[in-house]
Amino acid sequence: MAVLKLLSNQGFISYNKIVAKKLGVHEAILLGELCSIFMQFNCNEFYFTQDKICNDTALSVKQARNAIKTLETAGFLTITKKGVPCKNWYLLNEPAIVAFFDKNDNEIQSSCEERVQPDEQNLPNKNSGNGVSSEAKTDAQLNKNTSKNTEIRIHNNNSEPIAEKKVTKIESKKAESLKKQEKIQTFLSSLSEQDSFIFDKCVTSLFEFRKSQDSKFNRSSFQLAEWKYKFALFANESSRTSTEVLNTLNFALSDSWWSGCMYNPDNLVKNYDKIIFKQNKKLNSQSSSPRPCQQQRQWTDDHLFF
């Protein structure tokens, strides 16, 4: 009995192709469900909750809401609010639905003709000449149709192409990462021992600073090597020494403003000129201001002179 109930008309929703083409798939599903409920209520106004719509049609709340709006704007559905608490009551506008199908009568006839044409092609041809029987022709047509169907099934089976695309993407990413590792290793191997040691200090100082800010912060050996590569590449392209880069990085990490912006070597590279400007400004201010002992000595000398 459970299987019979499942296979009964109540377990299905009538789906109209022309409504789906003109208004949308969700609208066609909802219209089929509303038509069945409308017939159950003897073509009268009926009450239907949003949860029941989503449960019976398997549409989401947003999809059901948009479908109701489109059906209402098309004139298929009228909604009135009644009762306390306020509820939505639905009524199908049968003349508007009939007028819609009258406008699209040509598409309905063409779809019906498409369904009839394959059956007419498979009928035996009595006036067949060329010494070939009608049964042989029908067998050949069936073989062609089966081959076409198998081709269509193969092309429509999207699981294999998607899997192949995923595999190719993973392989391409692996190949790119390997090329990147080789490029970084070759560049770092060309550095001198002193520069390599100083750039290692840059990496350790930045890593320890980030670790002090966040105890869960961690980086792999390849990512740290990439940091070293970025420091060294910037020094090479900007014609700066490794000690200059290290001193500027240490100043940025000790500064109250720039320390909040140092997350990776790219931040240092982008703001290097600004950091240098502030560093030089601070050094000039420290060198220009005299010490207290020097000020006192100058005052005593001047006093004695006068």
Which features does this protein show?
306 residues, mainly alpha, Arc Repressor Mutant, subunit A, 3-stranded antiparallel beta sheet, 3 strands, 71% helix, 5% strand, disordered N terminus
Entry summary:
This protein is mostly helical and 306 residues long. 71% of the residues lie in helices and 5% in strands.
What best-fitting shape do the alpha-carbon axes yield? elongated
N-to-C order of helices and strands? HHHEHHEEHHHHHHHHHH
Through-space gap between termini: 122 Å
* DSSP helical segment count: 15
The overall average pLDDT, rounded, is: 75
What's the SSE blueprint?
Blueprint: H1 2-6, H2 17-22, H3 25-40, E1 46-47, H4 50-57, H5 61-74, E2 77-82, E3 87-92, H6 94-103, H7 105-121, H8 134-156, H9 159-189, H10 193-213, H11 221-237, H12 242-254, H13 265-270, H14 272-288, H15 292-305
Helix pairs in contact: 3-5, 9-11, 10-11, 10-12
Describe this structure in words.
- The protein is mainly alpha-helical and 306 residues long.
- Among the domains are: 2-101, Orthogonal Bundle (Arc Repressor Mutant, subunit A); 184-287, no CATH class.
- 71% of the residues lie in helices and 5% in strands.
- The protein has 15 helices and 3 strands.
- Helix 9 (159-189) crosses helix 11 and helix 10 (193-213) packs across helix 11.
- The protein is elongated.
